[in-house]
Design a protein that fits this description.
CATH class: Alpha Beta
Radius of gyration: 14 Å
Strand content: 25-35%
Order of helices and strands: EEEEEEEEEE
Shape: globular
Number of helices: 0
Number of domains: 1
Structural class: mainly beta
Length: about 120
């Protein structure tokens, strides 16, 4: 399977913690516009072929998993409109991390911290 598209349904509850275990060839994980809760599972880091991740307009909370930064193919990340927290956005991002990332949407969350020059 290349794409899992569950956008704009009425799904509730949390995403299974092992969602990334057997989906290493998945390109698109699209779960936007539902009522999903809990944390974004770190096992998404196992999806080594992931290009597009859309988890916007849900009710995810907690921090953005560091494992998302290990995706060599990730181009499009949409996490806006959740209840994500954290302030670990400082310093430079090494060029080998998220080197293909083109778009990152984090608006309408509860992120904090200082923006640097």
């Amino acid at each position: 399977m290349d794409t899992l598209d569950l956008i704009s349904n009425n799904f509730t509850g949390s995403v299974p913690s092992d969602i990334g275990r057997n989906m290493t060839k998945l390109w698109d994980l699209l779960m936007a516009e539902n009522s999903l809760t809990g944390v974004i599972p770190p096992s998404i880091g196992n999806m080594s072929s992931l290009v597009n991740l859309m988890l916007d307009r849900n009710q995810f909370s907690g921090k953005i998993p560091a494992e998302l930064g290990q995706h060599p193919q990730l181009e499009f990340v949409v996490l806006w409109g959740n209840q994500l927290t954290g302030k670990e956005f400082s310093g430079f991002v090494p060029g080998n991390i998220l080197s293909k990332l083109e778009q990152l949407y984090l608006l309408e969350n509860n992120l904090a911290g200082a923006l640097r020059d």
